[in-house]
Fold this sequence. Notes:
The complex is a heterodimer. Chain A is 0% helix and 60% strand. Chain A is mainly beta. Chain A is globular. Chain A has strands at residues 4-7, 10-14, 19-25, 30-38, 44-51, 56-59, 62-67, 72-77, 86-94, 100-102, 106-111. Chain B is mostly beta strands. Chain B contains no helices and eleven strands. In chain B, the strands form two sheets. In chain B, strands 2, 4, 5, 6, 9, 10 and 11 form a seven-stranded mixed sheet that branches. Chain B is globular. Chain B starts with a strand and ends with a strand. The interface between A and B is medium-sized, with 22 and 22 residues.
Amino acid sequence: KQEVTQIPAALSVPEGENLVLNCSFTDSAIYNLQWFRQDPGKGLTSLLLIQSSQREQTSGRLNASLDKSSGRSTLYIAASQPGDSATYLCAVGSRGRRALTFGSGTRLQVQP
Amino acid sequence: SAVISQKPSRDICQRGTSLTIQCQVDSQVTMMFWYRQQPGQSLTLIATANQGSEATYESGFVIDKFPISRPNLTFSTLTVSNMSPEDSSIYLCSVERSFGGYTFGSGTRLTVV
């Protein structure tokens, strides 16, 4: 059974810092990994999708990497802004299971 | 990519009653997924809904409590039955996009009093 872990659970940084969010998964037989953002009480916004054949994806100030062999992904946020404050969720699509398995999230607070 | 319209966006319900949540997708999809997010927690899969067949429920979720309908390839409903305060959560539907990855509805924030 796939298990997804995110570290840290919470993070508070001053505006302008670069930061890294970590995600690990137990079963490397994945077909993709997706990072989402969730604002309080709201739904999910997709940030980046990495297919199993890819090593990284970039969108603006966000960069996500994937290392299947070690069961890890990182989300890098450059030059953080107060508007980046949200919960970031890592989710894995595993072979043999069409639905996503989610990590518990990292709650990010960027201080102005 | 698919766009999902989910409603209601929120509701406050009395215990013992039922609430039906609807998701409408702007394109045909084979599978739809229903998730629950309890306060302060991550998302947990409730069930997978295929058109024309009964939904497949995850461990800990049963059809009598969370009946699902999937009448066609663009629509699904989830009912939360005989509600108790423990059912207070955000409920989300999701579909897999044609190029991979998933899209989610905006969620239904349910409070049971």
